[in-house]
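Section 5: illustrative case.
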């Protein structure tokens, strides 16, 4: 589906989404460059942050370029294999975002609650292992959804009520037993959604408990400030994600679902670099140096 058939509005949408996509790619690339450029930022927290930025570029590139081309060419057709590929990559990078945010919460938990053992617990090898595990689990979830669609022998119709091959929309088109699709979807949602969120919640519960024990208000503020960017990113990610899936189940309409999808797939990856750069003095200073050097 498209957002509008009005030629004037399509031109506006083309410019809007192209601008948002370019800002997303440029912002995340600058964040990766800042981490690579400054040796003081070669720490586990910034390693995961640069991984998150790279993943966000891949995530938004899965849907947005195709949508921009569709608006420009006035064509909304996608092949069957193209649709499966898009869905698989959407789930892969979406799950990677979830896993990386969970790992970053664990990193903050160790840094604040066990600062003396931080270098040992979150070592270089441990960081690489956590990243590989995140990639593996994301691949497993992606292929599970892919298998469900591939097992479908037919589809009710071939019109997808969204601007990309969103998994739940493809499941609704299937002629196979909807109960099986629903059960598998909820099982996967619990494993890859609820448990990571539970891990983040537990990490921040321990962080808050430890920070409240710090006697000075300055010390408490400093400890909380190291988590503020990550907490903002978590709220943005889960807020838009839950709005996309839970809101659509309560009162679904195609346009409402597409707008929510834009928030989740375009708006969130675009805001992440601003959240981390504006709230982080080290990254802000490094970015200023890079930009002044470029000039």
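Designed sequence:
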């Amino acid at each position: 589906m498209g957002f509008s058939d009005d030629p004037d509005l399509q031109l506006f949408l083309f410019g809007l989404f192209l601008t948002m996509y370019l800002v997303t790619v440029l912002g995340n690339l600058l964040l990766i460059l800042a981490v690579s450029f400054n040796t003081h930022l070669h720490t586990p927290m910034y390693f995961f942050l640069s991984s998150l930025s790279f993943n966000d570029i891949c995530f938004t590139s899965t849907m947005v370029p195709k949508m921009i081309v569709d608006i420009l060419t006035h064509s909304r057709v996608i092949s069957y294999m193209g649709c499966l590929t898009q869905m698989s990559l959407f789930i892969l990078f979406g799950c990677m975002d979830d896993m990386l945010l969970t790992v970053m919460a664990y990193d903050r938990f160790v840094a604040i609650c066990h600062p003396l053992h931080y270098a040992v617990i979150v070592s270089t090898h441990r960081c690489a292992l956590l990243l590989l595990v995140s990639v593996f689990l994301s691949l497993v979830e992606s292929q599970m959804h892919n298998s469900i669609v591939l097992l479908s022998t037919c589809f009710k119709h071939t019109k997808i009520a969204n601007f990309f091959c969103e998994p739940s929309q493809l499941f609704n088109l299937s002629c196979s037993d909807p109960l099986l699709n629903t059960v598998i979807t909820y099982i996967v949602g619990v494993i890859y959604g609820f448990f990571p969120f539970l891990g983040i919640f537990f990490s921040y519960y321990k962080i808050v408990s430890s920070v409240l024990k710090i006697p000075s208000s300055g010390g408490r503020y400093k400890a909380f400030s190291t988590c503020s960017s990550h907490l903002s990113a978590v709220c943005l990610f889960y807020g838009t994600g839950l709005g996309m899936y839970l809101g659509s189940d309560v009162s679904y309409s195609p346009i409402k679902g597409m707008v929510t999808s834009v928030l989740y797939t375009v708006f969130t990856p675009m805001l992440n670099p601003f959240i981390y750069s504006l709230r982080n003095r080290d990254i802000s200073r490094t970015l200023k140096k890079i930009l002044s050097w470029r000039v």
